[in-house]
Write a structure and sequence with these properties.
49% of the residues are buried. The protein has one domain (22-320): Alpha-Beta Barrel (TIM Barrel), CATH 3.20.20.70. The strands form 2 sheets. Strands 1, 4, 5, 6, 7, 8, 9, 10 and 11 form a 9-stranded parallel beta sheet that branches. Strands 2-3 form a two-stranded antiparallel ribbon. It is globular. The protein is built from 10 helices and 11 strands. The N and C termini lie far apart (53 Å). α7 links the parallel β6 (162-166) and β7. The chain has helices at 7-17, 24-31, 38-55, 96-109, 124-135, 151-159, 181-194, 211-223, 250-264, 311-320, and strands at residues 60-66, 68-69, 92-93, 113-117, 142-145, 162-166, 197-205, 228-233, 273-274, 287-288, 291-293. The protein is α/β, with parallel strands linked by helices. Bound molecules: iron/sulfur cluster.
């Protein structure tokens, strides 16, 4: 067995490790490297070193709060919150009190952002109300995770207290979803135009996705300046129409996390993976999403009682892998309260 790695891969890693970003063909070559090869070990180590050099020891936790469940008529095939999945037969919202309790829990465990997720058919006006409620109640920066928006709606999100939005062109967009990837990109442009930070992930990755389509989305994230853009695998809820395709392993996801990290170069402020897993924290990822409320990966209305990980669990995993979740966020500065009070969290 040779102890050396391929010179072609070594060249790509040298370039990637210096933060130059990767070309499409280079990313594709790395994405199809044999999983247990020395090359993949070197790839992960290079991505890890780049993240630690750029982000310091900081681990981030962006707390996902899904505010409603619904039989969503858009019927994206990977999502449990659809009419076709038949899991949630009635639309239901979590109460203001429940959302506030979760937000305060996020503040207490030291979340770096609150990621407020709605289904695709949720009232935009109601999302704005939730933003106004949270922005006067907690110090944690607010990120919206909702449908495609116009410039006027982007401005309204800002006015309601949001500072960023999570928005992805999903793998299989237009094939397994009814949505148009061009419209998704238009929303990403809106975010930039109005001054909302853009959060992204390559998702939801399954075994059926080609290295080419994965690489294209990684390059899109760099081109449009994502604040972060890691990798989330598809989780097949029981009865999912995607079950015949299976799921990728955490190890396969970590290989993609590493490639995505090198593609992004010095553009991002963090690098995400989902669901929380230790190996990606040694492959360039430093950002987790603890979760409560609705989730497209869960049959439980409150994923905090199902698949979702708590803030404490995420932070413990990060510490085990040599990251420090208690440092200030690289993605956001914590807001002062509307009354000018000093944040108890500094
Ligand atoms: S992913 Fe969003 S838009 Fe698609 S079905 Fe689920 S809730 Fe609706």
């Amino acid at each position: 067995m040779s102890w050396k790695i391929s010179p072609a891969v070594a060249d790509i890693l040298r370039r990637g490790g210096e933060g130059e970003g990767l070309e499409r063909e280079q990313a594709i070559l790395l994405l199809i490297l044999p999983l247990r090869s020395r090359e993949v070990a070197a790839l992960m180590q290079t991505a890890d070193a780049l993240s630690r050099a750029q982000f310091g020891e900081k681990a981030e936790n962006h707390f996902h709060i899904g505010v409603n469940v619904a039989p969503c008529p858009l019927n994206c095939q990977f999502c449990s919150l659809t009419e076709k999945a038949g899991i949630f037969k009635e639309a239901a919202e979590f109460s203001d009190e429940q959302i506030l309790e979760w937000a305060r829990y996020g503040e207490t465990f030291g979340a770096d952002a609150l990621n407020i997720m709605t289904t695709g058919n949720f009232s935009f006006e109601r999302l704005l109300e939730i933003g106004r409620l949270l922005s006067k109640s907690v110090f944690v920066p607010l990120v919206a995770n909702t449908r495609d928006i116009s410039h006027a709606e982007g401005e309204a999100l800002l006015e309601a207290g949001f500072v960023g939005a999570y928005h992805a062109v999903r793998l299989g967009e237009g094939r397994v979803t009814p949505l148009d990837s061009k419209r998704r990109v238009q929303t990403i442009r809106v975010l930039k135009d109005v001054g909302l930070k853009w959060m992204n992930c390559i998702e939801p990755v399954g075994p059926e996705h080609s290295a080419e389509e994965i690489a294209d989305l990684m390059l899109l994230a760099r081109e449009h300046g994502a604040t972060f853009s890691g990798v989330m695998r598809r989780v097949n809820f029981p009865g999912s129409p995607m079950e015949p395709y299976g799921m990728i392993s955490e190890l396969e996801m970590a290989r993609m996390v590493a490639v995505s990290r090198l593609v992004m170069g010095t553009v991002p402020k963090a690098h995400c993976t989902h669901e929380p897993n230790a190996i990606s924290l040694a492959a360039g990822a430093n950002l987790f999403f603890p979760e409560v409320g609705s989730s497209p990966r869960d049959g439980e209305a409150d994923t905090g009682k199902g698949r979702g990980s708590s803030g404490e669990r995420c932070k413990a995993m990060q510490r085990e892998m040599g990251w420090n979740p208690d440092l200030p966020s690289n993605c956001f500065t914590r807001r002062p309260s509307p009354a000018g009070a000093v944040s108890p969290l500094g």
